[in-house]
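Re: [ENG-882] Designed sequences occasionally contain unexpected residues at chain ends

Forwarding the minimal case from QA. Structure tokens:
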């Protein structure tokens, strides 16, 4: 694989996120509303299954994002593109009147998928501890922590427009090799340009 030597080739990235655990020792979540993690990554918005509100929250979901970067012809440019893109996670709890965001995490996509400064962008596999920022609705004074594994690969494509039409999110169980395609649209697509939540 040599994106740096390609002139008419384009980068296609496939990051995977799996097995998230949200913990916060000594904190009891209010009410009985079930909790999920909402994830915005590479222009897609999806979320985990919902669990009872008791720490630790063990999410066994796995997600695979497929994204083509048209016009990105070398790894240096891809690195700048990923640095400019933001990943956003929310810990959300159901309420009778809707949903409440309990904590958030935000960083660049580059820092999430390739956290080591000297790491090559062709492939990465890391286990991360992500410290969330509590909102005013979070019941504790300790910040919740997400433990998550990511696996990312970068490949080349000579048909970027065709690949773009196939960009998608697939999901499944972290202990099951089978995955299903989640019909999530990219942010800004669809009616009103809004995000589409996963069930």
């Amino acid at each position: 694989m040599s994106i740096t030597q390609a002139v008419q080739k384009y980068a296609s990235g496939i990051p995977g996120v799996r097995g998230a655990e949200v913990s916060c020792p000594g904190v009891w979540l209010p009410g009985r509303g079930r909790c999920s993690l909402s994830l915005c990554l590479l222009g897609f918005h999806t979320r985990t299954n919902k669990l009872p509100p008791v720490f630790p929250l063990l999410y066994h979901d796995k997600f695979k994002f497929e994204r083509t970067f048209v016009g990105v012809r070398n790894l240096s440019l891809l690195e700048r593109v990923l640095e400019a893109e933001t990943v956003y996670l929310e810990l959300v709890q159901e309420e009778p009147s809707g949903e409440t965001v309990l904590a958030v995490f935000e960083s660049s996509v580059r820092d999430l998928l390739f956290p080591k400064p000297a790491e090559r962008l062709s492939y990465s596999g890391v286990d991360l501890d992500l410290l969330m920022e509590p909102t005013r609705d979070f019941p504790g004074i300790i910040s919740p922590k997400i433990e998550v594994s990511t696996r990312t690969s970068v490949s080349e494509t000579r048909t970027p427009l065709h690949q773009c039409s196939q960009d998608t999110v697939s999901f499944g169980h972290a202990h099951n090799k089978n995955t299903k395609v989640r019909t999530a649209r990219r942010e800004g697509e669809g009616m009103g340009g809004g995000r589409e939540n996963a069930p």
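QA comment: On inspection the terminal residues look reasonable. Residues 75-84 form the longest helix (10 residues). Proposing we downgrade this to a documentation issue.
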